[in-house]
């Protein structure tokens, strides 16, 4: 799996967009970029993932550079409830089909 690097901490004004960068310069063509967050004393929570295209869901947007060497998680209207440790993880996405 590719190595990821992120800032150790970031500050954000409440109600404004929070942009969380992640560098993954050794990513391969078939590895997905996953973001999770962990709120104090809770288990990790899935936020969003993507391969090449930018993605958006109800919680966040994921912007992936064209060369896929970095990405940015965008929380459009950050609030105190979004305070957490955010993890950027690069790995293959396995799908288990159930028949």
Automatic annotation (TrEMBL):
Pfam families tied to this protein: V-set (PF07686)
Keywords for this protein: Adaptive immunity, Cell membrane, Disulfide bond, Glycoprotein, Immunity, Membrane, Signal
Claim: Transmembrane helix is one of the keywords in the record: no
Domain Ig-like span(s) in chain numbering: 1-99
GO cellular component, one term: plasma membrane
Cross-referenced InterPro entries: Ig-like_dom, Ig-like_dom_sf, Ig-like_fold, Ig_sub, Ig_V-set, TCR_complex_component
Biological process annotations from GO: adaptive immune response; response to bacterium
Entry-linked PROSITE patterns: IG_LIKE
Subcellular locations according to the entry: Cell membrane
Chain segments annotated as coiled-coil in the UniProt record: none
Protein name: Ig-like domain-containing protein
Naturally occurring in which organism (per UniProt): Macaca mulatta
Top-level taxonomy: Eukaryota, Metazoa, Chordata, Craniata, Vertebrata
